[in-house]
Backbone:
Protein backbone atom coordinates (compact mmCIF):
# COMPACT_ATOMS: atom_id res chain seq x y z
CA UNK A 1 0.00 0.00 0.00
CA UNK A 2 1.38 3.45 -0.85
CA UNK A 3 2.01 5.85 1.99
CA UNK A 4 -0.74 8.44 1.73
CA UNK A 5 0.21 10.34 4.89
CA UNK A 6 0.04 14.05 4.33
CA UNK A 7 3.35 15.88 4.40
CA UNK A 8 3.14 19.10 6.46
CA UNK A 9 3.55 22.35 4.54
CA UNK A 10 6.52 24.36 5.78
CA UNK A 11 5.83 28.07 6.15
CA UNK A 12 8.14 30.94 6.99
CA UNK A 13 6.76 33.32 9.62
CA UNK A 14 8.36 36.66 10.42
CA UNK A 15 6.99 37.92 13.73
CA UNK A 16 7.67 41.67 13.87
CA UNK A 17 7.27 42.90 17.43
CA UNK A 18 8.59 44.69 20.50
CA UNK A 19 9.21 43.11 23.90
CA UNK A 20 7.25 45.82 25.75
CA UNK A 21 4.18 45.50 23.53
CA UNK A 22 1.36 43.64 25.35
CA UNK A 23 -0.46 42.82 22.13
CA UNK A 24 2.73 41.22 20.84
CA UNK A 25 2.71 38.85 23.81
CA UNK A 26 -0.95 38.08 23.11
CA UNK A 27 -0.34 37.69 19.39
CA UNK A 28 2.56 35.30 19.92
CA UNK A 29 0.57 33.15 22.33
CA UNK A 30 -2.32 33.04 19.85
CA UNK A 31 -0.04 32.19 16.93
CA UNK A 32 1.67 29.38 18.82
CA UNK A 33 -1.66 27.88 19.87
CA UNK A 34 -2.78 28.04 16.23
CA UNK A 35 0.42 26.25 15.21
CA UNK A 36 -0.30 23.58 17.82
CA UNK A 37 -3.81 23.12 16.38
CA UNK A 38 -2.43 22.75 12.85
CA UNK A 39 0.37 20.39 13.82
CA UNK A 40 0.77 17.76 11.15
CA UNK A 41 -0.57 20.15 8.53
CA UNK A 42 1.83 23.05 8.95
CA UNK A 43 5.44 23.33 10.07
CA UNK A 44 6.65 26.86 10.73
CA UNK A 45 10.05 28.50 10.78
CA UNK A 46 9.41 31.48 13.07
CA UNK A 47 11.81 34.42 12.96
CA UNK A 48 11.49 37.27 15.45
CA UNK A 49 12.08 40.66 13.87
CA UNK A 50 12.75 43.96 15.69
CA UNK A 51 10.36 46.86 16.02
CA UNK A 52 10.76 49.59 18.64
CA UNK A 53 7.57 51.27 19.75
CA UNK A 54 9.59 54.00 21.46
CA UNK A 55 13.08 54.19 19.92
CA UNK A 56 13.75 57.61 21.45
CA UNK A 57 12.98 56.45 24.99
CA UNK A 58 15.78 57.08 27.48
CA UNK A 59 17.52 54.10 29.08
CA UNK A 60 15.77 54.65 32.41
CA UNK A 61 12.38 54.53 30.72
CA UNK A 62 9.20 56.30 31.79
CA UNK A 63 6.28 55.71 34.09
CA UNK A 64 3.91 53.52 32.08
CA UNK A 65 0.78 55.48 32.97
CA UNK A 66 2.30 58.84 32.14
CA UNK A 67 3.80 57.46 28.94
CA UNK A 68 0.54 56.00 27.62
CA UNK A 69 -1.49 59.04 28.65
CA UNK A 70 0.93 61.32 26.80
CA UNK A 71 1.17 59.08 23.73
CA UNK A 72 -2.51 58.20 23.31
CA UNK A 73 -4.33 60.85 25.36
CA UNK A 74 -6.05 58.25 27.54
CA UNK A 75 -7.46 58.95 30.98
CA UNK A 76 -6.50 56.93 34.04
CA UNK A 77 -9.87 55.16 33.84
CA UNK A 78 -9.35 54.27 30.18
CA UNK A 79 -5.85 53.01 30.91
CA UNK A 80 -7.18 50.81 33.71
CA UNK A 81 -9.88 49.41 31.42
CA UNK A 82 -7.34 48.67 28.70
CA UNK A 83 -5.03 46.94 31.15
CA UNK A 84 -7.87 44.76 32.42
CA UNK A 85 -8.85 43.82 28.87
CA UNK A 86 -5.25 42.87 28.12
CA UNK A 87 -4.94 40.94 31.38
CA UNK A 88 -8.09 38.95 30.59
CA UNK A 89 -6.96 38.17 27.03
CA UNK A 90 -3.61 37.01 28.37
CA UNK A 91 -5.25 34.80 30.98
CA UNK A 92 -7.30 32.98 28.33
CA UNK A 93 -4.04 32.20 26.51
CA UNK A 94 -2.07 31.19 29.59
CA UNK A 95 0.02 34.37 29.73
CA UNK A 96 0.23 36.40 32.95
CA UNK A 97 0.22 40.19 32.90
CA UNK A 98 1.32 41.43 36.31
CA UNK A 99 -0.27 44.57 37.80
CA UNK A 100 3.19 45.44 39.14
CA UNK A 101 4.46 46.69 35.76
CA UNK A 102 5.14 50.38 36.39
CA UNK A 103 7.59 51.52 33.73
CA UNK A 104 8.24 51.14 30.03
CA UNK A 105 11.83 50.79 28.84
CA UNK A 106 14.05 51.24 25.81
CA UNK A 107 14.33 47.86 24.05
CA UNK A 108 17.14 48.33 21.53
CA UNK A 109 19.62 46.20 23.48
CA UNK A 110 17.02 43.47 23.95
CA UNK A 111 16.58 43.40 20.17
CA UNK A 112 20.34 43.13 19.70
CA UNK A 113 20.35 40.03 21.87
CA UNK A 114 17.38 38.60 19.99
CA UNK A 115 19.23 39.10 16.71
CA UNK A 116 22.24 37.28 18.14
CA UNK A 117 19.98 34.48 19.39
CA UNK A 118 18.61 34.16 15.87
CA UNK A 119 22.14 33.51 14.65
CA UNK A 120 23.08 31.15 17.49
CA UNK A 121 19.75 29.37 17.89
CA UNK A 122 17.37 29.73 20.81
CA UNK A 123 15.66 32.89 19.62
CA UNK A 124 12.17 31.73 20.57
CA UNK A 125 13.28 30.80 24.09
CA UNK A 126 14.85 34.23 24.58
CA UNK A 127 11.77 36.00 23.19
CA UNK A 128 9.50 34.18 25.63
CA UNK A 129 11.85 34.90 28.51
CA UNK A 130 11.97 38.62 27.71
CA UNK A 131 8.19 38.87 27.49
CA UNK A 132 7.76 37.04 30.79
CA UNK A 133 10.46 39.12 32.46
CA UNK A 134 8.79 42.37 31.53
CA UNK A 135 5.07 41.62 31.62
CA UNK A 136 4.84 38.89 34.26
CA UNK A 137 7.73 39.81 36.55
CA UNK A 138 7.99 43.59 36.04
CA UNK A 139 11.72 43.52 35.28
CA UNK A 140 13.76 46.21 33.55
CA UNK A 141 14.50 44.77 30.10
CA UNK A 142 16.92 47.59 29.31
CA UNK A 143 19.23 46.79 32.24
CA UNK A 144 22.33 44.93 31.08
CA UNK A 145 22.66 42.72 34.15
CA UNK A 146 19.03 41.70 33.78
CA UNK A 147 19.46 40.97 30.07
CA UNK A 148 22.59 38.90 30.70
CA UNK A 149 20.78 36.82 33.30
CA UNK A 150 17.78 36.29 31.02
CA UNK A 151 20.06 35.22 28.17
CA UNK A 152 21.88 32.75 30.41
CA UNK A 153 18.63 31.34 31.77
CA UNK A 154 17.46 30.87 28.17
CA UNK A 155 20.40 28.60 27.37
CA UNK A 156 22.63 31.21 25.72
CA UNK A 157 26.11 32.21 26.81
CA UNK A 158 25.85 34.83 29.53
CA UNK A 159 29.48 35.85 28.94
CA UNK A 160 28.87 36.41 25.25
CA UNK A 161 25.65 38.32 25.99
CA UNK A 162 27.62 40.66 28.27
CA UNK A 163 30.25 41.17 25.57
CA UNK A 164 27.55 42.05 23.02
CA UNK A 165 25.87 44.53 25.34
CA UNK A 166 29.18 46.21 26.12
CA UNK A 167 29.79 46.75 22.39
CA UNK A 168 27.83 47.86 19.33
CA UNK A 169 27.49 44.29 18.07
CA UNK A 170 24.43 43.73 15.87
CA UNK A 171 23.36 47.37 16.24
CA UNK A 172 23.57 48.05 12.50
CA UNK A 173 21.77 44.81 11.67
CA UNK A 174 18.89 45.61 14.03
CA UNK A 175 18.54 49.16 12.70
CA UNK A 176 18.58 47.88 9.13
CA UNK A 177 15.78 45.40 9.86
CA UNK A 178 13.72 48.04 11.65
CA UNK A 179 14.06 50.39 8.69
CA UNK A 180 13.14 47.61 6.28
CA UNK A 181 9.83 46.97 8.01
CA UNK A 182 9.08 50.67 8.35
CA UNK A 183 9.69 51.13 4.62
CA UNK A 184 7.45 48.12 4.01
CA UNK A 185 4.59 49.97 5.67
CA UNK A 186 4.61 48.36 9.11
CA UNK A 187 3.46 51.03 11.56
CA UNK A 188 2.23 48.91 14.44
CA UNK A 189 2.92 45.53 15.97
CA UNK A 190 2.59 42.65 16.13
CA UNK A 191 2.86 42.23 12.39
CA UNK A 192 2.88 38.57 11.40
CA UNK A 193 4.15 38.00 7.88
CA UNK A 194 3.68 34.52 6.45
CA UNK A 195 5.81 33.41 3.50
CA UNK A 196 6.94 37.03 3.09
CA UNK A 197 3.64 38.10 1.52
CA UNK A 198 0.65 37.43 3.81
CA UNK A 199 0.25 40.00 6.61
CA UNK A 200 -1.79 39.51 9.76
CA UNK A 201 -1.81 42.59 12.00
CA UNK A 202 -2.48 42.79 15.71
CA UNK A 203 -2.99 40.39 18.58
CA UNK A 204 -5.61 38.32 16.77
CA UNK A 205 -7.56 35.41 18.28
CA UNK A 206 -6.22 31.90 17.85
CA UNK A 207 -8.93 31.10 15.31
CA UNK A 208 -7.80 33.91 12.99
CA UNK A 209 -4.23 32.58 12.87
CA UNK A 210 -5.45 29.00 12.55
CA UNK A 211 -7.68 29.83 9.59
CA UNK A 212 -4.92 31.82 7.87
CA UNK A 213 -2.36 29.06 8.33
CA UNK A 214 -4.69 26.47 6.84
CA UNK A 215 -5.65 28.69 3.91
CA UNK A 216 -2.07 29.62 3.08
CA UNK A 217 -0.91 26.00 3.39
CA UNK A 218 -3.76 24.86 1.12
CA UNK A 219 -2.71 27.44 -1.46
CA UNK A 220 0.77 26.01 -1.49
Residues:
Amino acid sequence: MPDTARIPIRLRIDFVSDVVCPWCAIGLASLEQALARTQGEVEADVHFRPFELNPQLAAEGEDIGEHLAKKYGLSAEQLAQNHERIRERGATLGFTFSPERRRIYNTFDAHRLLHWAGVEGGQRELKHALLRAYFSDGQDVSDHDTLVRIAGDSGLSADRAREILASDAYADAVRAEEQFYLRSGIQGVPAVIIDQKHLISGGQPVEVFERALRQIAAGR
In short: The first strand starts at residue 9 and ends at 17.
